[in-house]
Amino acid sequence: MKEKLKIDIVSDVVCPWCTIGYKRLEKAIAELGVEDQVDIEWHPFELNPDMPAEGQNVDEHITEKYGSTKEQQIASKQNMTDVGAALGFKFDYFDDMRIVNTFDAHVLLDYAKEFNKQTELKMRLTTAFFSERKDVSRRDILKQALLDVGLNAAEGLAKLDNDEARYNVKSEEGYWKNLGINSVPTIVFDRKSAVTGAQPVDTFKQVLSELISKQ
């Protein structure tokens, strides 16, 4: 039996291009029919590790961080909405949308790995944030996400107060940063090669085809 191609995805839950990048990768995998030949694992990256509990208005945040004008932001959101729609994902931007702290979400994604539910939980959380106007830093929202993907909510939420679980996520963030990863999504294939950003479906198909043929 051929060894599966390991795909490590370094990303954040509230990163729109991470969602688009994954949906394009997913489409490439489906179009090639290689679902049973790849093994995906998600890794934590916080775009805003110092984000306070109350979060920050998205427009204010983007202006502060990137210096984008209002017109640029409107165009960017429309572009992401259109690209997402073409991939079957709904970006629902609204005036009071807030960027939130995602550390707890990453702790739960680490927990989900034990049950092979990482991708399911990742997409549930990113859908809650971008499509359903939900604050994915709130424990009630996180609890519902765990339930939605069939995980033990009490056990998962207990990890949020577990020093070892929190330390493990911090350590993993540090590991990938020390490898030079400072933008997401970064998608690593068999720990040998990587692509950064939401590449086109055809690019992913080419990379996957080449690597799987060598397995």
Automatic annotation (TrEMBL):
Pfam families: DSBA. InterPro entries: DSBA-like_thioredoxin_dom (IPR001853), Thioredoxin-like_sf (IPR036249). Signal peptide: none annotated. Residues 7-208 form the DSBA-like thioredoxin domain. PANTHER family: GLUTATHIONE S-TRANSFERASE KAPPA (PTHR13887), THIOREDOXIN SUPERFAMILY PROTEIN (PTHR13887:SF41). This is DsbA family oxidoreductase. It comes from Aureibaculum flavum. The lineage of its organism: Bacteria, Pseudomonadati, Bacteroidota, Flavobacteriia, Flavobacteriales.
